Amino acid sequence: MNEPAPILQVENLRKWFTLHRSLLAGQADTLKAVDGVSLAVRGGEILGLVGESGSGKTTVGRTILRLNTPTAGTIRFRGQDITRLSRRDLRPVRQKMQLIFQDPFASLNPRMTIGRIIATPLIIHSRALGRAERRRRVEEMLSLVGLSPGHAHRYPHEFSGGQRQRIGIARALMMQPEFLVADEPVSALDVSIQAQIINLLLDLRRKLALTILFISHDLAVVGHTCDRVAVMYLGRIVELADTQDLFSNPRHPYTEALFSAAPDPDPDASRNRIILAGDIPSPINPPSGCAFRTRCRYALPACATTEPSLLPATPTHLKACIRDDLTLQPAA
C-alpha cells in the first residue's frame, strides 16, 4: 500500500536567536534553538515530537507555522515553499495551519466572550460573513468539541481547564485547517482530563482528516496518540520511527534514557534505571560532534569529532548515532 504524500516537508530548518550581553560591550551570543531539523509529515497522521525541556520542540512548531522567522532551511506546505513568504502572502496559508496552545488559561482573552474568541478567525479571514452566519458557525464548532452552544455568551474564567482547552481547539478549527501544531496540549491538565482531550483530538483527526504535529514530553501520551515519533535533543532530531518500532526497539541512547525515566505502570517490575549526568548543555555553546556525547554512557572518542547525520537504521527507522552495535532497553 502506498503511503500518504507528505503534507509538510521541512529541510535543514534552523532558528537561531541573537542574545546581546550588554549595550556597552557590544558582544552577542547565538542561541541555536533549532539547528538543522528535517522531517516530513504525512497527510492524516499524527507525528509526535518529544524531548526534554529546552530541546527546541516548541520552537520547531512555531517556526513551521512561521510565527518565528526561520534562520535557514526550507518549509513546504502542500508543495508550496512558505519559508520566505510575506505576511500578506501567508494569510491564506495560515487558514490551513493552526496552533493549539499549551496553556488553556493564558491563551484566552479574559475580556472577550467565548463566542467572540472563537469567531475571531472568521472576523480576520472571512470578513464577508454576516453576524448570523458567524454565530451559527461558532455554535456548530462548540458542539463539535463537546461544549454547549449556550457557552458562547460566557467568559473564560467561568470554565475549567479542560473546557478552556476545548475552546482553544474550537478556535484552531474555525477556519477548517488541514494541519495542526498541538504544543503540549494536555500538560497543564489533570490526568483524567488529559484522556478526554486526547480522545477528542483523535476523534477530530478521524472526522476532519486532520494532520497533527503533537509536541509533548509525556511518552505515555505520545505512545497512545501518535503514528510516528521524532526524538529531539538540543535542537536536532536524533531518532525518528513508527511509534511501535521506536518503543520496542530504540536505536539512540537518548531515546533509551527517556524510556528509562518514564514511570512504569507495574510497581513490581525491575528496570535498569539510566541516570543522565548533568543537565542538557547550553544551545549557546553546544558540544562538538554528537551533542549527546557529554551525557551518553556509550560515548566513544570519535563521538567528539563526528557530528552524526540522521540516517536509516532500517528503511523506516532513522537515527543519528555512530554506534551500530548497541542493543538498547525498550520502553516499559
The secondary-structure class comes to alpha/beta
Element order, helices and strands?
A: EEEHEEHEHHHEHEHEEHHEE
Subunit arrangement of the protein? single chain
Write down the Rg: 21 Å
User: What's the arrangement of strands in the largest beta sheet?
Assistant: 6-7-8-3-9-10-12-11
Overview of the molecule:
The structure is a single chain. The protein is α/β, with parallel strands linked by helices and 332 residues long. The chain contains nine helices and twelve strands. The strands form two sheets. Strands 6-7-8-3-9-10-12-11 form an eight-stranded mixed beta sheet, with helices on both faces. It has a four-stranded antiparallel beta sheet with strand order 2-1-4-5.
List the helices and strands and how they pair.
Layout: E1 6-20, E2 28-42, E3 46-50, H1 57-64, E4 72-77, E5 80-81, H2 87-94, E6 97-100, H3 114-125, H4 131-144, H5 161-173, E7 179-183, H6 191-208, E8 211-215, H7 219-225, E9 228-233, E10 236-242, H8 243-248, H9 253-261, E11 311-314, E12 317-319
Parallel strand pairs: 3-8, 3-9, 6-7, 7-8
Antiparallel strand pairs: 1-2, 1-4, 4-5, 9-10, 10-12, 11-12
